[in-house]
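ok so for the tutorial part 2 we go from a plain amino acid sequence to predicted structure tokens. step 1 is just haveing the sequence, like this:
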Amino acid sequence: MATFLYKLGRISFRRRHLVALIWVALLTLAGVGAASAPAAGNSSFSIPGTEAQKAFDLLEQRFPGMSADGATARVVFKAPSGEKMTDPGNRATVQETVKELADGSEVVSVTDPYRAKAVSKDGTIAYAQVSYKVSGMELGDAAKDALQDTAQDARKTGLTVEIGGDALQAVPHTGSSEIIGIAVAAVVLVITFGSLVAAGLPLLTALIGVGIGVSSITALASTLDLGSTTSTLAMMIGLAVGIDYALFIVSRYRAELAEGRDREEAVGRAVGTAGSAVVFAGLTVVIALVGLAVVNIPMLTKMGIAAAGTVAIAVLIALTMIPALLGYAGRRVKPAGEKGKLLGRAKAQAEPAKPNLGTRWASFVVRRPIAVLLLGVVGLGAAAVPAASLELGLPDDGSQPTSTTQRRAYDLLSEGFGPGFNGPLMVVVDAKDSDDPKAAFTATGDEIKGLKDVVTVTPPQPNKAGDTATITVVPGSKPSSVTTENLVHGIRDAGAGIKADTDANVLVTGSTAMNIDVSEKLNDALVPYLVLVVGLAFLLLIVVFRSILVPLKAALGFLLSVLAALGAVVAVFQWGWLSALMGVEQTGPVMSMMPIFMVGVVFGLAMDYEVFLVTRMREAYVHGEKPAQAVVTGFRHGARVVTAAAVIMMAVFAGFIGSSESMVKMIGFGLAIAVFFDAFVVRMAIVPAVLALLGRKAWWLPRWLDRVLPNVDVEGEGLHTADDEDRKLVHA
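step 2 — the prediction. this is what the tokens look like for a chain of 732 residues:
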């Protein structure tokens, strides 16, 4: 592989005009496609195989005009202090509002609070429910504007009016902190390279790669049903890896220049060696992201594939466009050790350079491996302790900031009707095979009334055929509580007895039940996903490092860092530690997809640092150095760059903490802290300590396996062999 990439790097350097033209053309094409594509909202959310989804599908068949998956809005009214919603003036305002709401072309129905008995016992709060023909992500801006304008008109009369439900779903925004993250990355690159030109190359190529990836996602969003969160996560991961991959190649190029090679040869060798590490690091990230498909949640699968595509683009740009831009930069990119005028050192210093910080740190670790290993493991173990209290759930209006109308509507409904009113359960009774459907409907309602934590059970509402009915159940606890989850399981358990007695199937659905089913499905998929992703990457790393123990150590170190990161997420988003600093207004369960998504992304990124750092060590070992010295050599060449890459990645991820979307905020924080733990504790401390303790055993590989494995030559041995042959020909 090193030889092929070496040739690719030289060709890209020589044909720089063509390479640059191709990438600019692709960026333009993707941009035009994104500009001309129809806008798309959040991706539709279906969970194949869950009971809640089966019930939704059944409702679509048996209640064709019901729009079971259609958007809903709850317009909540509160009377001024000292007044009641039943007062004539307030009543007239509400009825006029209901009339205006019903005029929308996409509206199916609007309930009158006074006819539907939707007024609180104390008479101060009432609500009207609006049902739409289409889902929240398909609802047009005109319908949303009409809903908000109608509520604003009602407020003018003195009533407090707020809107809950999924009809006002908004596209998340990331805020200015994302730009701050990129600015931090730029500063780190300038400090690392000492040159604006060298620092600008990784930023430029990363932005081009992300531009192509995100524009392509936007262009295909409507066709492939990709949500706005998909492009945000692709941007987050694409920026981080794009900068890092380019950083490693530019850094290796400067090291090759420092050894006296001409620029074209230096580019070829940089792409042949560091580029090989980029390819395999990118492959681990792609495997981790595409592997999300095993969860069988379409939205998560699309997010993973889209982000993986952006990573693949970042790899290709690093291998081709970076060499082309280095050709344009010429002498403005200086050899390693020779800083530009920007940092005040125009020429390399004549006296021998002192050992850099990476060399001094590695030498210390090699001398004290047991102490460093114990300190690192105990520290990560302590950070992971909160993960034992992990509670999973999906966000509802109760997790929104208090400044939003959705959150204020949620709080008003809890005040007037109880916390469970915000998460009603819909029970679907399929009595098609029953001899007496009406008796089955009645028996189901009576059975549910006898369960704990049930506040209200509505009378069965049968369809026209009379073979299916819906029953609404209002729990006594809030939607995200363990008590409500137990109630869902209790109704389903009771359904088994009803089935035996009446031959009717009882299914529980609704957003609360769907959230519970999603959490359970993600929990069940976590172990198979870990086995698949870690197993494939383990095999890949065996090929890269030609060792058994090094990949095993890499995988165990990853598990430590991801558990510690999950512990930090629980401490901030569930327990509320430092929540004000992170902009977390409402603590609660950690999002259900957070652990599995973090496992996928962090594993890929963790293997990045493993590949970049340890390939330098293996390269030194293969070329004759002793194991301990190879560790120090790897740090001398790689620690500064890996540190810069980790700081950049942390800055980019942390930039997304300012997002208005709670999922993006949580993932941004989780990935940033995970990179910190993995890069600075696992890869910089635990890895060299373990390698120092193992010595030559670290690079042991059974002979039979050595013969079977393909030789991918990540450390560029083929390039050194070619050098030796050239020297022999010269001396001959």
